[in-house]
């Protein structure tokens, strides 16, 4: 399944990528249900949050099986694999790496044996105090007194959390979580499980979304409400910032490990979340349409047609057309089948760039003054190629409108923006960017306009990529580019046999 904009991480030149988000997580407790299949379909709904790898962990009450591999959900799992993952509790994950290399060892859920069985964990976000946690792990009784690179099976901050939870041999997983969670800094939505219980936790700022849903015979937690819809779960509520929940045969329990200080990611509304997802009681699609309306008010222009850059620009383009009175139309066709491929494009094909994904409808745009609505400009390469393509197709004028403010600061909370030196808005003003991409005019929605479209108080939103105000302190090691831990070589888990070493079973890639 493509990202919200129809693009896939694997098929975009690194110099041409937009912002990439970290991961999607899902958990289910549902005795008697096919929890692996429920998780599989939920991960389909969350595929846009990461396409590097996918994994599912399932417990049958006595052991945990984890199956994961590089690739899309449809490439990693088949009917036979899902049939082998039997149990009542499951955790699923789709990954895009912001910490740790994009290798099989770093696929999630991660696993650690514990004193009472096993622990599997999936994470969406990015921790900013990994160095501090690494030092704590080295001091913990039961942990090897060496760097986590040796003590763990992978090299991302998720494994750091998993390993720490497993060191509290005298505590239940729930009580261990109450010891570990207050020590975590940054953005984290965790969904984890032991042999018979599902757990979910959200950072005190609630930077990334995490929701709770109810099945007829169980419970689910997910990164977005769209995943609840696809498995037939009813929305109950959002997991609160600073909250830990546990679900087992005794029901649902809730504990708070930190005081809530809401700072939800503003970019979720612009780009990251699916348009059919609800965040803070508001449908993302409605917010994006309102962004477009406000954008039209802030940057009007005389034109003949409003067209979106599909798909993430579509709702804002609809709103722009409604507010401006300029007709809305489809001027670009997206190739829905540009997916992950094992065949690298030739240099000639690579130079075509955006044409691999978008193609203009010449008879629609020829001779027209166009308003082209997109979600963001990061490096500017995509917009430059897009404007050139539209002019070659006969557009009389190209006016670019962006449904987010200029991105001037990197994200340390789970979005893989370019470095600050590569962000075009960091070095150039709006007029200079307009000339750089060869547009006739360029307008970004204001920060106040974007915040107003969400109907949330400004102080309850993380706006760091736009204004440089980070709600969680960023250590110097992160500010200077620490986004990866040295790659490890030990294969990741697969089977938890209590009182025995897990059997390793690496799945074979499924080529689609």
TrEMBL record:
Pathway: Purine metabolism; IMP biosynthesis via de novo pathway; N(1)-(5-phospho-D-ribosyl)glycinamide from 5-phospho-alpha-D-ribose 1-diphosphate: step 1/2. CDD domains: GPATase_N (cd00715), PRTases_typeI (cd06223). It is an enzyme of class 2 (transferase). GO terms for molecular function: 4 iron, 4 sulfur cluster binding; amidophosphoribosyltransferase activity; magnesium ion binding. Binds 1 Mg(2+) ion per subunit. It catalyses: 5-phospho-beta-D-ribosylamine + L-glutamate + diphosphate = 5-phospho-alpha-D-ribose 1-diphosphate + L-glutamine + H2O. Mg(2+) binds at residues 312, 374-375. Residues 503-512 have a biased composition (Basic and acidic residues). Residues 488-512 are annotated as: Disordered. Keywords: 4Fe-4S, Glutamine amidotransferase, Glycosyltransferase, Iron, Iron-sulfur, Magnesium, Metal-binding, Purine biosynthesis, Transferase. The active site is at 23 (nucleophile). Transmembrane segments: none annotated. [4Fe-4S] cluster binds at residues 265, 411, 462, 465. InterPro entries: GATase_2_dom, Ntn_hydrolases_N, PRTase-like, PRTase_dom, PurF, PurF_N. Pfam families: GATase_6. GO terms for biological process: 'de novo' IMP biosynthetic process; purine nucleobase biosynthetic process. Its EC number is 2.4.2.14. Residues 23-250 form the Glutamine amidotransferase type-2 domain. Gene3D superfamilies: 3.40.50.2020, Glutamine Phosphoribosylpyrophosphate, subunit 1, domain 1. In the C-terminal section; belongs to the purine/pyrimidine phosphoribosyltransferase family. PANTHER family: AMIDOPHOSPHORIBOSYLTRANSFERASE. This is Amidophosphoribosyltransferase. It comes from Auraticoccus monumenti.
């Amino acid at each position: 399944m493509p990202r919200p904009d129809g693009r896939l991480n694997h098929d975009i030149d690194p110099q041409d990528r937009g912002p990439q988000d970290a991961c999607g997580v899902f958990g289910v407790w549902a005795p008697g249900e096919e929890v692996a299949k429920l998780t599989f379909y939920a991960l389909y709904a969350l595929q846009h949050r990461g396409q590097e790898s996918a994994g599912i962990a399932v417990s049958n009450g006595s052991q945990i099986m984890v199956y994961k591999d590089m690739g899309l959900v449809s490439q990693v799992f088949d009917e036979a694999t899902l049939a082998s993952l039997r149990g009542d509790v499951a955790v699923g994950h789709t990954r895009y790496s912001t910490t740790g290399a994009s290798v099989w060892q770093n696929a999630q859920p991660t696993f650690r044996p514990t004193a009472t069985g096993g622990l599997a964990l999936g994470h969406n976000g990015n921790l900013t105090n990994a160095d501090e946690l690494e030092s704590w792990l080295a001091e913990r009784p039961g942990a090897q007194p060496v760097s986590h690179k040796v003590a763990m099976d992978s090299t991302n901050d998720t494994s750091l959390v998993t390993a720490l939870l497993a060191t509290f041999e005298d505590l239940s997983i729930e009580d261990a979580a109450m010891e570990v969670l207050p020590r975590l800094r940054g953005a984290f939505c965790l969904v984890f499980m032991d042999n018979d219980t599902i757990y979910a936790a959200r950072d005190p700022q609630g930077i990334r979304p995490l929701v709770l849903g109810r099945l007829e015979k169980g419970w689910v937690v997910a990164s977005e409400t769209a995943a609840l819809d696809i498995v037939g779960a009813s929305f109950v509520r959002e997991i609160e910032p600073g909250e830990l929940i546990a679900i087992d045969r005794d029901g649902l329990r809730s504990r708070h490990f930190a005081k809530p200080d809401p700072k939800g990611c503003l970019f979720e509304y612009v780009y990251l979340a699916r348009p059919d997802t609800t965040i803070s009681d508001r449908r993302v699609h409605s917010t994006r349409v309102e962004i477009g309306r406000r954008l039209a008010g802030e940057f009007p222009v005389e034109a003949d047609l409003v067209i979106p850059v599909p798909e993430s620009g579509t709702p804002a383009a609809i709103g722009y057309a409604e507010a401006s009175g300029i007709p809305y139309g489809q001027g670009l066709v997206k190739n829905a089948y540009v997916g992950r491929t094992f065949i690298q494009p030739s240099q000639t094909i690579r130079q075509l760039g955006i044409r691999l994904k978008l193609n203009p409808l010449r008879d629609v745009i020829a001779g027209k003054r166009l308003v082209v609505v997109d979600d963001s400009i990061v490096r500017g390469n995509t917009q430059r190629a897009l404007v050139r393509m539209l002019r070659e197709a006969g557009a009389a004028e190209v006016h670019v409108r962006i449904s987010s403010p200029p991105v001037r600061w990197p994200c340390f909370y789970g979005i893989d923006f370019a470095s600050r030196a590569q962000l075009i808005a960091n070095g150039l003003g709006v007029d200079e960017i307009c000339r750089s991409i060869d547009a006739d005019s360029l307008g970004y929605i204001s920060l106040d306009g974007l915040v107003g479209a969400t109907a949330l108080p400004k102080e309850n939103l993380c706006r760091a990529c736009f204004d440089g105000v980070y709600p969680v302190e960023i250590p110097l090691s992160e500010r200077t580019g620490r986004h990866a831990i040295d790659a490890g070589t030990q294969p990741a888990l697969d089977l938890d046999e209590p009182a025995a070493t897990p059997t390793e079973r690496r799945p074979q890639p499924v080529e689609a």
